[in-house]
Write a structure and sequence with these properties.
single chain, alpha+beta, 3-stranded mixed sheet, 4 helices
Length: about 180
């Protein structure tokens, strides 16, 4: 996608996305046979619901049809949220990942697997899991130390105290009903 087309699309779509309190993470146009696919990736601190994507898709489709930003060739429009394996590149990505396990490659070449406990403008506080019965350790990592990072998927994460208290509250409410 040319820079001019990218800038035009961003200019058309950003106000629609912002009006829904979402962040425009990415705009991508890729060839798909005789057609093209325009993929709009949006996110928010609260996550993105399917209804948000559907409504934004309808609005974006109308705006794109009324403009010539996509040219005359046919295209398919996709509005989606980022996948679980997307790279953490912005401060907001790290803030949204607090409590999650991440895998980071540091500029010095080391690899770090740790749980984010706090984030500020300069970096993150993480808890590095203990190995072979050792206790977890805490560490401060500045953003300029990180070459790349992404969330690690956890399928059997042990719940923490907050999760257990939330589940107990739900159970109490169900019993009262």
């Amino acid at each position: 996608m040319s820079t001019t087309q990218s800038e035009r699309l961003r200019g058309l779509l950003e106000p629609l996305v912002a009006a829904r309190d979402l962040d425009l993470e990415e705009i991508e146009v890729t060839p798909a046979g005789k057609r093209r696919v325009l993929r709009i990736v949006v996110d928010s601190d609260e996550g993105v619901q399917l209804d948000d994507c559907a409504a934004l898709s309808r609005e974006a489709s109308q705006v794109l049809d009324d403009s010539d930003a996509m040219g005359g060739a046919p295209y398919t429009l996709e509005v989606t949220s980022p996948g679980a394996d997307r790279p953490l590149t912005e401060l907001r990505h790290y803030r949204r990942a607090v409590g999650r396990l991440i895998k980071a490659r540091l500029h010095e070449g080391d690899e770090l697997i740790a749980r984010i406990t706090a984030v500020d403008d300069a970096g993150l506080d993480v808890e590095v899991p203990g190995v072979k019965g050792r206790k977890p350790t805490t560490r401060r990592v500045a953003f300029d130390e990180i070459a790349k990072a992404r969330v690690e998927l956890e399928f059997n994460r042990k719940s923490d105290k907050r999760d257990e208290q939330h589940e107990e509250k739900i159970d109490e409410n169900q019993e009262e009903a």
